[in-house]
Amino acid sequence: MTTNQTKVMKTILWMTQPQMQPYAQGQQAAWLDALEAEGWTVHVQQHHTRATWRSAAKCDWLIWSFVPTPLDVWSARLYAGKQMAVISELHQKHGTLPKLERWCVSSESMRMQLRDSGITQDKIDIVQAYAPQGSASTFDVRAQLRINAEKPLLYASGPLYASMGSKLAIWSLSILQQLHPGVCLVLHGEGPEHERLQRFGESVCEPGTVYFASSAVSTHELVAQADVVCLPLREDGVPDALFAALSLGKPIVAAQQPSPMEWLLHDVNALVLQSDRAPVWAAALDRVLRDGGLSQKLSLGGRNTTIPSERVMLPVVLRRRSGTLAAA
After folding, report:
1. Which domains does the chain have, with CATH numbers?
2. Dihedral angle computed from the Cα positions of residues 233, 234, 238 and 244, in that order, rounded to the nearest 10 degrees
3. What's the whole-model pTM score?
4. Residue that wins the pLDDT comparison between 171 and 19
């Protein structure tokens, strides 16, 4: 057996998308901790251009934290020994899926979508984990954004992409403010929709009631300070905000997307609604804010919901220590 044949794989490059931190930072942190505990050397890098591959050292595995394009995968073929995708969301119009060694998803719904798109069952793993992340420094959202302590605060998950449904959250807030003057909304993160959403909020809501929090602030920390968590997702996915809200016992108002509904049950731990119907969302938020009993029931239902732990059972292809369970 040659030296090359006996070489043990040890290097992983984890590729992230710019501005996507608020979506699945806690889930990715659990993965990174597990990989390092398993003996891998992991380097995290933001994806920008193909120029990266010309100067970078080779790695044994390249892990995409999003669905790469076939061109992305082709460009990295000489740099990476093998390639894998670990995804927490799946766009409806993802185009042609690239050929990868493995796909890891966070819900049964996404597994079925990949199968429907031609990925064979033997290449797909369901791997779930959530390790709550804190910010580098303490962040008091009400103090920093000067939100009245007596006014309800809504949180809408980020980042600011159309798929997150942030416009629906603002539109619902504008209706809700007819019944609850001064109620505020914090949108999390950055993204291409920022300026458009800012203008829309200024045009339809009470002045100074729509805020934007940096992606440097952790999702778990922001959710902890909110009164209600909104998940107006327009596409399927499992955002950190879902697990943060359940674990912290925050009332949830969510869109009827398949993946979140693997954890949410209407009128038990959330109010689950059709997307793009702002009057319906405003009415649901009004119920939560007015009905203390409903709010407490949803809170208790959330705390009693079993969510993925901080421990990750890595796919077999990434286990270097036979039979071990990598801990976060």
Report:
1. 3-130+308-318 (3.40.50.2000), 141-303 (3.40.50.2000)
2. 0
3. 0.91
4. 171
